[in-house]
Write a structure and sequence with these properties.
2 domains, Rossmann fold, alpha/beta
């Protein structure tokens, strides 16, 4: 029987990168017609591997894949929230991700959001587009010498720190899991509250965990004494949008610059879509042509390794290889 690789869903258009990598293995690449559970249960039958973008890979889908001898579920992306890891592990299926793509893109986007808000670029550009020619309102300050608090200093947080330091920002960071902050010149804060207390900008780079849900809410905003700008290119659930909206309206926050929101797309009627001190981008920080190609290649390479009996580069679960 021919080797079969099922793509549950994808947003790339072309799958030529995957086809090229799988061709030497004579593997058939098949796209599922839809990503609902019932469709996927049928589509993954007999699959040796799955490539997954945003589809929900439930226990039922995993059971159907495992029955046909599926060896790997390769996620196009960093997070694996949409894959039931417990079920995959129990079935002896390795789950992989791509934790090291789009790092520069996200750091660049985070810095662009920070600079755009700090310099009033959106407000100024819209004024010109609407036929006006005037300076932005109050609140534009010199960037050099101001303070940026980083919440999390992993691969992306460190890259943003490098960019911020080049602009003359004072960078303070909180990350209870990082023994080394990586970049000289970053000050370590002992607590999250200490990190944000005197910050002019707060940039989020933390994972989405139960403990981190709505990290930026009324309590933490209350610890921010300088009414900072909140920048989020990490996970939407880190920010309580109701708390942020109230803080914008009563002056406890200067602005928000968000690439991710807890519900996406952000509902059309949501006040932040048109709030004068909110800049929202459509979850695009990861995107570049180079990053997309890198993502497709690295995810497909995990499938190639699994089909060749080689260990994965980036496993996210521990599987008994003898059982698998």
């Amino acid at each position: 029987m021919a080797t079969r690789v099922v793509v549950t869903d994808q947003v790339f258009g072309s799958l030529e990168i995957e086809r090229g990598l799988l061709a030497p293995l004579d593997a058939e690449l098949v796209e599922a017609p839809a990503k609902d559970e019932a469709t996927l249960v049928g589509a993954v039958a007999g699959a040796d591997a799955l490539l997954v973008c945003y589809a929900s890979v439930t226990p039922a889908v995993i059971e159907a894949a495992a029955a046909g001898g599926c060896r790997v579920i390769a996620r196009y992306g960093i997070g694996v929230d949409n894959i039931d890891l417990e079920a995959a592990t129990a079935a002896g299926i390795v789950v992989t991700n791509v934790p090291d793509y789009c790092l520069d893109e996200v750091a660049d986007h985070g810095m662009a959001l920070l600079l755009g808000v700090a310099r009033g670029l959106v407000e100024g550009a819209l004024a010109v587009r609407e036929g006006r020619w005037e300076l932005p309102g109050a609140g534009i300050h010199r960037i050099r010498g101001r303070t940026l608090a980083l919440v999390g200093v992993g691969r992306i947080g460190r890259r943003l720190a490098d960019r911020a330091l080049a602009f003359g920002l004072d960078v303070v960071a909180f990350d209870p899991f990082a023994s080394d902050l990586g970049t000289p010149g970053i000050r370590r804060a002992a607590t999250l509250e200490e990190a944000v207390a005197e910050a002019d900008f707060v940039s989020l780079h933390a994972p989405m965990t139960e403990e981190n849900h709505h990290m930026v809410g009324d309590r933490l905003i209350g610890a921010m004494r300088r009414g900072p700008v909140i920048v989020n290119t990490a996970r939407g659930g880190l920010v309580d949008l109701d708390a942020v909206l109230a803080a914008l309206d009563d002056g406890r926050l200067s602005a928000v610059a968000l690439d991710v929101t807890e519900v996406e797309p952000l509902p059309e009627a949501h006040p932040l879509r048109r709030h004068p001190r909110a800049v929202i981008t459509p979850h695009m920080a990861f995107h570049s042509e180079e990053a997309q190609q890198e993502l497709q290649r690295r995810a497909a390479e995990e499938v190639v390794r699994a089909l060749a009996g080689e260990p994965p580069r980036c496993p996210v679960n521990a599987v008994d290889r003898q059982r698998a």
